[in-house]
Design brief:
By secondary structure, the protein is an alpha/beta fold. It is built from 10 helices and 7 strands. Helix 8 packs across helix 9.
């Protein structure tokens, strides 16, 4: 037996009564809600006081600088604040300095004098006076210079002299002193090639006039200047050697005189470190042995002053 509609309605709880309290709150049309049956599925919260909520901090979305630069398509974004663009380091401007080899417009006067009496056994030729030498008037006066040490250790002198004995060397050992350039500088690198080459003719005239048996060049650069003036070109690496040079390279030739033999010695400057002290000593020993032998042959007693 099929129950009537009235019996079905009587067997179910009265939905209208159950939802009376909420009809005003939820504007649900009874016709659309199947006579209020949909009200069973509505969820109602109890009337409790609302609690304040902590505001969620705003998230700033910034565009990534690195990704937008390098991506040719859609730029990527990141939630973190991108680091500031690094500043480029400023480039240091180099100070313009004067050319090191340019001669000074106001040359410093030198108190050093030549000591070249006639007929010396050996005339030593330096590059130019240092500042201390120029101010004192004594050859190779700087304490770091090895000149006086090498003279003694090679046998050219019988004891280690002080620079103040510069002008005693001719009478004591038949050894004189001059330079290719007279202008004092802090070091020889401050001289130009033109200034060095200009001194060659002056040297030749001094040697021709005073006629020493041999000249000892105290430094490779002196021989390079002489070679440049004589041959019109720089000396090649395989052409250079320390020690005695060929007889055709004698200096001061003229008036039937065959000239002075040339011995290229090492520099004695304390600033030059291309050769060890032992290597320098070996070169100077060769010159010292020749000087001692020539003094014996002349009957010259070293260390005893002789009137010129």
């Amino acid at each position: 037996m099929i129950p009537s509609d009235n019996s079905t309605q009587s067997s179910l709880p009265d939905m209208d009564d159950a939802n009376n309290n909420h009809d005003d709150e939820h504007d649900v049309n009874r016709t659309r809600s199947f006579n209020g049956r949909l009200g069973r599925f509505l969820y109602y919260t109890p009337d409790t006081p609302s609690t304040p909520t902590t505001p969620i901090p705003r998230q700033i979305i910034t565009r990534s600088i690195s990704s937008s630069r390098h991506s040719s398509t859609t730029p990527s974004t990141t939630s973190s604040v991108s680091s500031p663009r690094p500043r480029a380091k400023p480039t240091k401007r180099r100070r313009r300095t004067h050319e090191a080899n340019a001669p000074s417009t106001a040359p410093i006067p030198s108190r050093l004098r030549d000591s070249i009496p006639p007929n010396l056994i050996l005339l030593l030729i330096g590059v130019n006076p240092g500042l201390m030498t120029g101010s004192t008037g004594y050859a190779y006066a700087h304490p770091s210079n090895l000149f006086w040490k090498l003279l003694y250790s090679s046998g050219i002198t019988t004891r280690r002299h002080a620079p103040s004995d510069t002008y005693k060397l001719p009478a004591l050992y038949s050894v004189g002193n001059t330079n290719i350039v007279e202008r004092p500088t802090r070091d020889a690198s401050m001289l130009s090639k033109a200034e060095m080459d200009a001194g060659v003719a002056v040297l030749e005239a001094k040697i021709e006039r005073q006629r020493p048996e041999a000249v000892g060049l105290v430094g490779k650069s002196i021989w390079e200047s002489i070679w440049r003036v004589r041959h019109g070109r720089a000396i090649k690496k395989d052409e250079f050697r320390y020690g005695w040079q060929e007889e055709c390279e004698n200096m001061g030739c003229g008036d039937g005189w065959s000239g002075a033999r040339v011995f290229v010695a090492t520099t004695t400057s304390g600033l030059a470190a291309t050769m060890s002290l032992q290597e320098k000593q070996e070169v100077w020993n060769e010159l010292g042995e020749w000087v001692q032998r020539r003094r014996e042959e002349r009957g010259f007693v070293p260390g005893v002053a002789v009137e010129s």
